[in-house]
Every structure is written in structure tokens, then in C-alpha cells.
UniProtKB/TrEMBL annotation:
It comes from Micromonospora vulcania. The keyword Oxidoreductase does not apply. The keyword Translocase does not apply. Belongs to the glycosyl hydrolase 13 family. It comes from the Bacteria. Keywords: Hydrolase. This is Alpha-amylase family glycosyl hydrolase. Residues 15-386 form the Glycosyl hydrolase family 13 catalytic domain. PANTHER family: ALPHA-AMYLASE FAMILY MEMBER, NEUTRAL AND BASIC AMINO ACID TRANSPORT PROTEIN RBAT. GO terms for molecular function: hydrolase activity.
């Protein structure tokens, strides 16, 4: 069975959370040289592409997502030459490279915002940002009640009666993409990285690039996740059409993927023929281990993406959510990776999920995520899924950095039990399962019909084929073992031992 369409249509992409992947120089931060040294590991894992989280200059108020220069490299993380070398090495190994562009906002240390802060009310320098006069007698109140995604108000005062919008942290002021300089600079940034040979771009906070210019209050009863005047507006798509034309001007099927949060109705518009190739399917991260949400959700996403001859981009894990083991349990996480890899579409794996890493409980004074601070400690933030990876069984830093170095987030005792070195030769390990699944996906699932044919199955199970023939995927979400024989004569791969042709609960098998 051969693949059809561009390389990314059913690619498996591995998110390298750069700060937590490999620290080559011992300063505690993962870096480009470290990531470059582990490209053979990723090639051996069998993935098609590597997504690098931001490596641009940043004060690090939000782990690099507060960018002060979009066309340079943070010297703590490497150099432009190191980026070029990584791209070259990846291509020699058959890996594509996707970079993360954060274009909704900049750092408060960006020259544009430094100038805006100094220039004063009504100045042209402030016109690049969402700036409004405050309410109250002396402008002491925010312009409206919009909330920050990280907690608290989405507005911060300049101290002179005007306020600026920050949908995330106060150190991340939102840009106005209607401003011609902002629009031109975004295109220049996109072309800069495409010229250096990157194969794709993830657009961070994809839906937030335009806001209702009247800045209306949210309706009564509004809850996070409801439609908002600052997210997924129709006018945002003109920006993506503009950027899609840039992507199409380069050879090699360059990918644009939107970081979207929401159901099919949110995802579909980004996939129109003149827009992007992919938009993240994040909802499955929160689907419970019950058959009906998965069956209905898969059908809805396949139908929505098919309307534009696209496929879903299934997100198995990410730096923005808790670890798969935390969400689904150890057995459930192993079962879900086989389920996602059998579905039509692309799959995004998060660094460390191939090791079955658990969420780490950090002490209050160890947490760096601004979500924790802005929520007043009620939200623990995302750092529990960002703890640096264990490569060896030796004590801290477990091969993440040179012996004696201190990782930017603390690794717990026993972290070496999950190390690559411990799992690499263990056929029962999560690493071995992931490697086998990615390999078998290429020979048994990839390139098959995009339709899912659901098969009759017990009440707590899912079973399907793609098209009318080929392998079947059987997912037992219940507690009682089930007989696999109605679904195939041979087990290709299973997330748990199939004893006497009985598939245990919370497990998945591929059969033919």
C-alpha cells in the first residue's frame, strides 16, 4: 500500500519540547545542539517529522513563547548555524522539520513594545498593539472584562490611562495583524524560516490573531471554550490565506498547521483549499475511555476534514496538557496510542510519551508556568508535563545534561526507571510498543482509505477497519477480556499481552 498526497497527510510528528529534550552545554536548558544529537534516536523511532518548540530570543516569562526577535536564535539555545545544521542532519536522516511561529503576540521586551510603552497615549507605536483607554474616572479600570487564558484580566495598564491586551501573560502583548507593518513582518518571518529549509510551520494560538475591533463584553453566562470575540473569527482566515500563498510558493509541500482548540466546527475553516494543510484535533485529549465519545468524535472529525479533502491531525500529547498517562492511566495511554496511529490522518506525539512518562507533582516554588501565578495557585499549570527527559538510569540529570548539571525543572527520584536506556532493549516497554506501532502503521495503515468502517463489538469496545479490507483495530475499554478472533486470525501488535486470544481491558490490538 503506497501513500497518496503530500508527505504530511498521514505523517507522525514528534514534538521536541526543546528546553526539556537534551541539554548539551550543561546550563540546565535543553538546546539545539542537544536536539541535533538525538536525531538518530527519532529516526530510529520511525517518525516522519520533528516539531521544534520556540528557540528564539526570549526573556522566558512563558518558556520561550514570549518572543523578542522572531528571526534570530536565543544564544542560550544555539545559533542560526546550529538551526541550519539540525535541518541538514534531519533531512539526511529522512526527517522533516517543523518550526513553531508565535505570531499572535510578542514579548514585552520586543523593540516594538518597548517603543510603545515609551511613546505615550495615542502614539503610532501603540497602533501595532490592541490598546484602549481604561474605564473609570482616570482610566484606572480595564477596557472590558475579557479574561486572560492564563487567568486574571486580559488587559494590563501602561500607567497613563491606556491599557494593552494580552490574551496570555502580561509579558505577551497581542499584536494587531490589521496593521500593515505587523502583517508585513509576519510574512517576512515566515519566509525567513522557509528560506532556511524548514518543511513546515506550526502557527501558535492560531485562532487569536484577530479580535472584534469594538471589543464587546462577553455575553452573560460565557464560559471558557464558548465562542469569543477574540478567537476563531472569520476575518482570521484572510491571514491564513495570505500565509498559505507563501507556503505554496516553496517546493516540497511545505506544511502549515494551526494550533486550534475546539471541535470540527472550529477546525474545518482552517482547512479550506486556499488555507492550511492541518489544524490540530485537540478534543480527543479529553475524551473519556468510553466507546461512544470516540466513535462519534472520530466520525465528526473525519466528515469535517473530508469536506476539504483533508484528514485530522490527531494530537496524542502536547506541552500544554497533562501527560497521557495522567489523562488515561498507564494501560489506557498505551491503548490510545495504537488507536490514534490506526486512524486516518496525521498523529502528533509529545516528547516523553513514547516512554510512558507520568505527570510530575512539583512543589509550589518549583513551578515556572505563569498560569500558576496568574491563577493564584488554583491551576498548577503545565510544568508537570515539561520535566526534562530521562535518557539514562544514572542519577540527576539522568542523561538530560552533563553529569553535575541542574535541569531547569527538577526531575523526581526514580526518573531513571523510565529512561530510554532502560526501555530500549525491553520488548514490553512503552518505547518498544511505540516504535513497533509507528513502523507497522507505515506498512498496514498508512495510505489506506480515509473512511472508518465500524465493526460490531461488545458494549465497552470499539472495532474498525479502514475501507472494506485490511487490518482491524480492536479497542477494549472495559474491564472484561474479549475474544479477538472475530476481528482477525493474527495479532499484528497489541498494547497488552493477548493471552489465549483474549484481549484484556484497557488495551488495543491490531489484527489481520
Amino acid at each position: 500500500m503506497t501513500d497518496t498526497g503530500p508527505w504530511w497527510r498521514e505523517a507522525v510528528t514528534y514534538e521536541v519540547y526543546l528546553r526539556s529534550f537534551v541539554d548539551a552545554d550543561g546550563d540546565g536548558l535543553g538546546d539545539l545542539a542537544g536536539a541535533r544529537s538525538r536525531l538518530p534516536y527519532l529516526a530510529d523511532l520511525g517518525v516522519d517529522a520533528v516539531w521544534l518548540t520556540p528557540f528564539y530570543p526570549s526573556p522566558d516569562h512563558d518558556a520561550g513563547y514570549d518572543v523578542s526577535d522572531h528571526r534570530e536564535v536565543d544564544p542560550r539555545l544555539g545559533s542560526l548555524a546550529e538551526v541550519d545544521g539540525l535541518i541538514d542532519d534531519a533531512h539526511r536522516l529522512g526527517l522533516r522539520v517543523v518550526v513553531d511561529l508565535v505570531l499572535n503576540h510578542v514579548s514585552s521586551a520586543h523593540p516594538w513594545f518597548v517603543a510603545a510603552r515609551a511613546a505615550g497615549p495615542g502614539s503610532p507605536e501603540r497602533d501595532r498593539f490592541h490598546v484602549r483607554p481604561g474605564r473609570g474616572v482616570a482610566g484606572e479600570l480595564p477596557p472590558n472584562g475579557w479574561p486572560s487564558i492564563f487567568g486574571g484580566s486580559a488587559w494590563a495598564p501602561f500607567g497613563d490611562g491606556e491599557w494593552y491586551l494580552h490574551l496570555f501573560d502580561t509579558e505577551q502583548p497581542d499584536l494587531r495583524h490589521e496593521h500593515p507593518e505587523v502583517a508585513a513582518d509576519a510574512v517576512a518571518t515566515l519566509r525567513f524560516w522557509l528560506d532556511r529549509g524548514v518543511d513546515g510551520v506550526r502557527f501558535d494560538a492560531a485562532g487569536s490573531l484577530t479580535k472584534d475591533p469594538t471589543y464587546p463584553e462577553l455575553p452573560a453566562g460565557w464560559r471558557p471554550g464558548d465562542p469569543a470575540p477574540y478567537s476563531d473569527r472569520e476575518d482570521v482566515h484572510e491571514i491564513y490565506r495570505r500565509w498559505a500563498r507563501q507556503l505554496a510558493a516553496y517546493p516540497g509541500d511545505r506544511l502549515g498547521v494551526a494550533e486550534t482548540w475546539g471541535g470540527p466546527e472550529v477546525i474545518e475553516p482552517y482547512l479550506r483549499p486556499d488555507e492550511l494543510g492541518q489544524a490540530f484535533a485537540m478534543d480527543p485529549l479529553y475524551w473519556p475511555l468510553r466507546p461512544e465519545p470516540w466513535r462519534a468524535g472520530v466520525d465528526a472529525l473525519l466528515a469535517a476534514t473530508a469536506r476539504h479533502d483533508r484528514l485530522p491531525a490527531w494530537v496524542y500529547g502536547s506541552h500544554d496538557v497533562s501527560r497521557a498517562v495522567q489523562r488515561w492511566g498507564r494501560d489506557g495511554a498505551r491503548a490510545m496510542v495504537l488507536l490514534m496511529l490506526a486512524l486516518p490522518g496525521a498523529v502528533y506525539l509529545y516528547a516523553g510519551d513514547e516512554l510512558g512518562l507520568p505527570e510530575v507533582a512539583l512543589a509550589d516554588d518549583e513551578i515556572r508556568d505563569p498560569v500558576f501565578r496568574r491563577s493564584g495557585g488554583t491551576d498548577r499549570g503545565r510544568d508537570g508535563a515539561r520535566v526534562p527527559l530521562p535518557w539514562t538510569t544514572q542519577p540527576v540529570p539522568y542523561g538530560f545534561g552533563p553529569d553535575g548539571s541542574t535541569p531547569w525543572l527538577p526531575q523526581p527520584a526514580g526518573w531513571g526507571d523510565f529512561a530510554v536506556a532502560r526501555q530500549v532493549d525491553d520488548p514490553a516497554s512503552t518505547l518498544a510498543l511505540t516504535r513497533a506501532a509507528v513502523s507497522l502503521r507505515g506498512t498496514h495503515w498508512r495510505g489506506r482509505p480515509a473512511q472508518v468502517s465500524w465493526l460490531e463489538a461488545p458494549a465497552d469496545c470499539l472495532a474498525f477497519r479502514r475501507g472494506t479490507d485490511g487490518p482491524s483495530c480492536l479497542v477494549n475499554l472495559g474491564d472484561t477480556p474479549i475474544d479477538v478472533r472475530p476481528y482477525g486470525d493474527r495479532v499484528l501488535l497489541a498494547s497488552a499481552p493477548v493471552d489465549g486470544l483474549m484481549l484484556p481491558g484497557r488495551s488495543t490490538a491490531w489484527l489481520c
